[in-house]
Amino acid sequence: MKLTVSVAVSDSTGDNVVVAELHRDGAVTAASLGLTLAEAKELLRGVQRQLVQAQLALHVETQRTCRACGTRRQVKERRRARFKSLFGGVPVSVARLRSCGCPDAASGAKTLIPEGLNRWVAPELEYVESWLAAKVSYARSSDLLTQLLPADVGSSTSTVRRRTLAVGKRLEKELRETKDAPAPGAEKDSATVIAAGLDCGHVRSCCPQSGRSFEVVVGRILGRGASSRSLGFVRTIEKSAQSRDRIRWRVAQEGATTDGLTVFTDGDEDLRRLQLAVLPNAEHILDWYHLTRKLTVLKNVVCGKEAVAKLPPHHQHKLYLGLSSLKWRLWHGQHARALSKVKELQRILRLPTVRNKPTARRLRPLLGKLFKFLKSNADSLPDYGKRYREGKRIATSFVESAVNQLVDKRMSKSQQMRWSRKGAHLLIQVRTEVVDGRLTSHFERWYPGFRGVDVALEVA
Ligand SMILES: [Zn+2]
Predict the structure, then answer these.
(1) d(CA 367, ligand 1 centre) in Å
(2) I want to staple 100 with a disulfide (CB 3.0 to 4.6 A). Which of 66, 96, 162, 217 is the partner?
(3) How far is the CA of 11 from the centre of ligand 1 (A)?
(4) What is the tens place of the pLDDT at every residue in 7-26?
């Protein structure tokens, strides 16, 4: 059996072009039933080639006639290009028209490139590549695309990386251009931002000269209702003014009013400064989760094998009780009493029978740091218990999940990947939009008429 698929071009030429011939002989088997992937790729490529070439031929014809004088302009030269799309690469010849002599600017010599087209790459290809690369590694994205798309699309690892980072760059450029204007789609007059959280993640660096890893700041802004907006940047790349703009822009996208806004951080000084610069009237709260994590580290030392074996039992027990009491005091917002409890623990560690034990040597700097930390964050320690009972937020689980979604899942140490600061920064910009489900809207803005393929991709 032979099945011929042809495309009829209904223009003046009226060509009928065969794009694929499918042969099936012998018994129907599981493998021979229906189209194979290779045939489907070939078929799509054939159709795409005919469509693109017919569209471009028509485009040149309509552009040739000058609207002012009606002259049919001559083609000065043609150069070759390759249009890259999800359905294969199509060789195209790009015409350059001579001027007809009219004073009208539109009638001057010009190269006929379809409006908005960027380096002859279809927006859909750019979209799918950056969407995938924001989720999985460049190499895996490239593998997947090579498996599913016609071979000559050019989805090598380096191409996927380059195109994805170009999308990141475009998002960055927009951010800088619109920093003082309301962001696109930010006209939510009545919306209110209720909480914001800032936190840091770490990414392995690819150039060991500048440290083994670098810090990525991520944040999430929660509006009333279920709306939320993420943000992220590499701390050393972004100047403080730029990070301020980024946060301000994102807050503006979630709502016009920020009354009663609560900002959660882990107490990091730089993050705090950032918050004061952008949202000076917000209430700053030290995230309970980060606070207890510090206590857990101390507790693990106090209850560790070494401590149990080497410390005098009653002192070890006292340290343990002291830590529990410290946690209780912090939970109830008793800041001064918490500090005196830390001092009490430090006194125990100075006792002659305890002083020289390895546990004491490990605990002393930890307690010293904790004391400093609590002291400098005195104004950010609320009565967590009361807030909790009132159903108010005490922990930045929503920021933790932002770190996880934006940084850890794609760039974590476990993935064995190393990053340049710039590469990580630009990828985070794309990933932020993908996580927030807004990448499509950017493409729709950049390429009028573009239709998102989010749903189809999610299913895939
Ligand atoms: Zn003319």
Answers:
(1) 82
(2) 66
(3) 26
(4) 887 766 667 888 888 888 88
